[in-house]
């Protein structure tokens, strides 16, 4: 019931649309439009320092007025935290950013300018207009940018992964820990119920050591072979292209069996699903 009462509560700021227009609505709209104009002017055509300081002081006065009006509206809502959740963006609009030095940070200035435009829209159309607009458009916007952002991040991650040399680093790690690995392998062979019987043979320890050393030597030579570098590079590149294509087809969000045939190989998720199906039948 509390939610329904909140839904029926009249907006404290009704804007200038016909119905409940007050003089303060016009004043706040003019101030909101003025704050947009001041910051926009500082971004597009930065004035001299003295003129910029005058604009900054005027902007500080406007922000102070909006801060007082914001606190008044919050007090009318009995300091309800939900008021902050709905109107959080207004706090950023109260930042006096129309300063010659601050306005030089274009990205931050443009973001705050857009927030001030939203505040001006609230003053023109009514309280929470920007909140409702963003709430309506957030999901389509996220869906629109999710795929290209995912692909861009994937490309950057793969570029970072391609800067490594996995076979050579693996070979270095194996060589540095050769004694520990030989001990582990010998322990596992001795503990194995079948291979453990070999310890009764003459020269058992020498045979195990020779086999392990030979295996290590061959493995290290294979890892240090330049052709293995090409193999690993091909694996990374092919997986990147398949993942990129799968993201473009939307296979990372849903199981579209009719789209999976467009990939060069089946996905790991499809293989796991097939395994689970066969295992469940058994």
UniProtKB/TrEMBL annotation:
This protein's record includes keyword Ubl conjugation: no
Keyword Cytoplasm: no
Primary site of residence: membrane
Taxonomy, superkingdom: Bacteria
TM segment ranges: 26-44, 51-72
Compartments, record wording: Membrane
Topology in the lipid bilayer: Multi-pass membrane protein
UniProt keyword list: Membrane, Transmembrane, Transmembrane helix
Protein name, per record: Ion transporter
Organism, as annotated: Amycolatopsis heterodermiae
